[in-house]
Amino acid sequence: MTKVIGYSERGYVYSLVSDVQSRGEDFVQVLFRLAGFKIKGKIENVTIYVEPSLSEFGNPDLIIHFKDKNVAKICFVEAKNKVKISDEWKKFDKNIDIENNSPRKNFTSNLFSQLSLKVLYTKAKKIKDVKKSKNNVEFVWDDFSQCKGLKGSKNKRSIGVKEVVWDLVRKSNWRKGNDYYVGIVNNTKGVEKEYLKRFPLKEVKNRVALIEWKDIAEELKKEKFEMQMFLNTKKFNKWKKTGKI
Fold first, then answer.
1. Could you write out the DSSP letters of every residue in 158-195?
2. Is 211 in contact with 182 (CB distance < 8 Å)?
3. What letter would DSSP give residue 21?
4. 182 in Cβ contact with 81 (< 8 Å)
5. What is the pTM of this model?
6. Which residue in 151, 97, 147 sits closest to 121, CA to CA?
7. Of 25, 28, 35, 98, which is the most buried if we count CB atoms within 10 A?
8. What residue spans define the domains of the chain?
């Protein structure tokens, strides 16, 4: 049984989740196979969050919680449709804050920025203290240097005060080294794995990958998923006829 918790509707992402939710365990298998991640055992207890908010850590398109051989794992998915991946990388490489190891303020919609912020979020889960004030709730953690940036603060990123965000934070319980990051794009050519050399993605380089929409479509079709929405969009009808996306 797969739980799907939606915060907003986002075209291909929402249609994909709507179609795979009856076979969430199989979908995780497909996603991890395409990403080159290993599955150790039986996939269970799948919960998919559609575009939740993590406040200053960004809004992932999907967060997938599941158990693999009874080990809690989490996968962050960032999806882009009309972008050229090489251009995304150049923009990210230009706008990274080298001193603070963080995407610059107001530069978070970029694919690589979003993936980087999720890595910082998982690193920040080792909480040293939680400070509450009238207008905010802040994580304060041990390794300040990895969490600088977004608003000029030297030692913190805010997770905000919204209960819906905190509810997700509380439920995000995985073991160290069981956090994964997937970017879904039209074409993965053009970055030559350069993103794996940049902090913080280089620290999870065996657990971050880019995959293509058409490969997901091919695998779901091969695995005989009943696709009512995702494979019936204009884009994928074209793919079914021409093999191109």
1. B--S-HHHHHHHHH----TT-EEEEEEES--TTSTTGG
2. yes
3. G
4. no
5. 0.82
6. 147
7. 28
8. 3-242
Tell me the pLDDT tens digit for each residue of 166-223: 777 777 777 778 999 999 998 888 777 777 877 778 889 899 999 998 899 889 989 9
User: Is residue 112 classed as helix, strand or coil in its secondary structure?
Assistant: helix
Q: Going by C-beta distance under 8 Å and a sequence separation of 6 or more, which residues neighbour residue 198?
A: 93, 96, 112, 116
Residue 47: burial class (beta carbons within 10 Å; 0-12, 13-18, 19+): middle
CA 8 to chain centroid, in Å, comes to 16
Tokens of residue 80, six digits: 């882009």
pLDDT, tens only, 21-40? 889 999 999 999 999 999 99
Q: Which amino acid is at 22?
A: S
